[in-house]
Specification:
- The chain has helices at about 10-20, 35-45, 65-70, 90-95, 110-120, 130-140, 160-170, 175-180, 185-200, 205-210; strands at about 5-10, 30-35, 50-55, 80-85, 100-105, 125.
- The chain is α/β, with parallel strands linked by helices.
- The chain has a six-stranded parallel sheet, with helices on both faces.
- α7 crosses α10.
- The radius of gyration is 17 Å and the shape is globular.
- The termini are far apart.
- Keywords: DNA-binding, Phosphoprotein, Transcription, Transcription regulation.
């Protein structure tokens, strides 16, 4: 199955570099390019891609507003945000807007391609070294999503609670399987059920929920 990708970045060289390396991968296809947030939103409406690789800083409508419009609309496209380590405030905004992943612009191109595949597969990804700091700060900072009081969640089994805690710690499905002595397929099933029960769009939202429920704290 080919993953259809829109590249949204106001720097032509960035788009060109990604497009050229993606041309060597049969499972990835660039179906559109945008230099502004407005163009990205329009492309999603017109051609329904699987993933939008979204720059944050663009003229006119920025990547945060474009992400919000894309994820709030009927399209099923997932947004993978391009960022830098000194743009935390902007990343928080993209997280609230519904982005499914964050990658850093100076990552190897092949790592960015791997992130596209992860996001397209319905998972979520945040660049290594950012995950726990980003989510923990996001949950506690002014303007973040309203903090939920720690509470039992109806319909969540004890095993699912364990899985949610591990998700909050940034564990992959393989690591969850190892930690709980279950198969990867079983771990994936638990994650899917948690998404359905908690109304989570993706793994990023599950991580946020784990922090909001105080299953995971900065002391972990």
């Amino acid at each position: 199955m080919t993953i259809r990708v829109v590249l949204a970045d106001d720097q032509p060289l960035v788009r060109s570099g990604l497009r050229m390396i993606m041309a060597d991968h049969l499972d990835l296809e660039v179906v559109g390019e945008a230099a502004t947030g407005i163009e990205a939103v329009q492309l999603v409406q017109d051609i329904s891609p699987d993933v939008v690789v979204m720059d944050i800083r663009m003229p006119g409508m920025d990547g945060i507003e474009a992400t919000r419009l894309i994820t709030a609309g009927p399209a099923t496209a997932r947004v993978l945000v391009l960022t830098t380590f000194d743009e935390d405030d902007l990343v928080y905004g993209a997280l609230r807007a519904g982005a499914s992943g964050f990658v850093v612009k100076d990552m190897a191109l092949n790592d960015i391609l791997a992130a596209i595949r992860v996001v397209a597969g319905g998972d979520a990804l945040i660049a290594p070294g950012v995950t726990r700091r980003l989510i923990a700060d996001f949950v506690g900072r002014p303007g973040a999503a309203p903090k939920r009081s720690p509470r039992p969640v109806e319909g969540i089994t004890e095993r699912e609670r364990e899985v949610l805690t591990l998700i909050g710690l940034g564990r992959t499905n393989s690591e969850i399987a190892d930690d709980l002595f279950i198969t990867v397929a079983t771990a994936k099933s638990h994650v899917s059920r948690l998404m359905a029960k908690l109304g989570a769009r993706d793994r990023v939202q599950l991580v946020i929920t784990a922090y909001e429920m105080e299953l995971v704290t900065l002391s972990h």
